[in-house]
């Protein structure tokens, strides 16, 4: 059954409320800490989320007929403005921009949630609200972790987002994975996830893709779904790896980290 826009919007709301509660208490020193995103401070993650919220709200307004089509350089203008902000302004701007975006999603009635089609600018055709909001959730939930892990090394991706992100993972592997990292060792692994429970195959050949559970896998990955999501997103460094993940067979966890370098 397809994920509904309602479920995704609810996850965006809870994620915003949780992250906003943390961000409101951060001072200048906190905002310049290294985040879970390589080479980004906490404030830079908030800048990315805030500018993304502004762009997403604008594309939604265009789809609703509330503003004309965006200028060709609209995104670049938004990014430049956010890049010029101070860390405190990043935090304050994120709180405002993301609140507005979530409230706009929430304000849409059932008819609009079903009928609106949004041109994101980088896909071949406009998409429905569930797809657009789902892409925002994939971005938001992982960057929420990037901020939270700066203050809690055992932070996890928000539980309400995990099954929703897991459902989107197959479509992302083609561009987030680097199969050339193990080009001389093509394998098919069993992938046994929990919370939610999933039994799948992970095929690593000239491309990386999910498949049906293989009858004779070369090895096995057993992990909570949240942990595997962070592995696939390049967010499972040794210091953030729980003991609940095990990898057996011809590839080790370090091999998989190279296949999934992050984005």
From TrEMBL:
Positions of the Mycothiol-dependent maleylpyruvate isomerase metal-binding domain: 12-148
Cited InterPro entries: DinB/YfiT-like, Maleyloyr_isom, MDMPI_metal-binding
Gene3D superfamilies: dinb family like domain
Name of the protein: Mycothiol-dependent maleylpyruvate isomerase metal-binding domain-containing protein
Pfam families linked: MDMPI_N
């Amino acid at each position: 059954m397809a994920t509904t826009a309602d479920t995704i919007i609810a996850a965006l709301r809870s994620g915003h409320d949780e992250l906003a509660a943390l961000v409101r208490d951060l001072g200048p020193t906190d905002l310049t800490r290294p985040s879970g995103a390589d080479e980004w401070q906490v404030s830079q993650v908030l800048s990315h989320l805030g500018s993304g919220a502004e762009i997403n709200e604008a594309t939604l307004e265009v789809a609703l007929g509330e503003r004309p089509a965006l200028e060709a350089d609209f995104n670049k203008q938004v990014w430049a403005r956010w890049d010029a902000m101070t860390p405190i302004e990043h935090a304050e701007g994120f709180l405002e921009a993301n609140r507005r975006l979530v409230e706009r999603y929430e304000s849409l009635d059932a008819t609009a949630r079903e009928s609106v089609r949004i041109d994101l600018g980088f896909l071949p055709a406009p998409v429905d609200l569930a797809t657009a909001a789902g892409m925002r959730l994939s971005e938001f939930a992982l960057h929420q972790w990037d901020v939270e892990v700066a203050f809690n090394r055992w932070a996890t991706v928000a539980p309400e987002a995990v099954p929703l992100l897991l459902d989107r993972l197959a479509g992302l592997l083609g561009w987030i994975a680097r199969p050339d990292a193990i080009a001389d060792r093509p394998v098919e692994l069993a992938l046994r996830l929990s919370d939610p429970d999933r039994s799948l195959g992970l095929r690593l050949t000239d491309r990386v893709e999910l498949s049906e559970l293989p009858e004779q896998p070369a090895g096995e990955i057993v992990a909570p779904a949240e942990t595997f999501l962070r592995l696939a997103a390049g967010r499972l460094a040794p210091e953030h790896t729980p003991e609940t993940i095990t990898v057996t067979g011809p590839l080790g966890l370090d091999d998989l980290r190279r296949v999934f370098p992050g984005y």
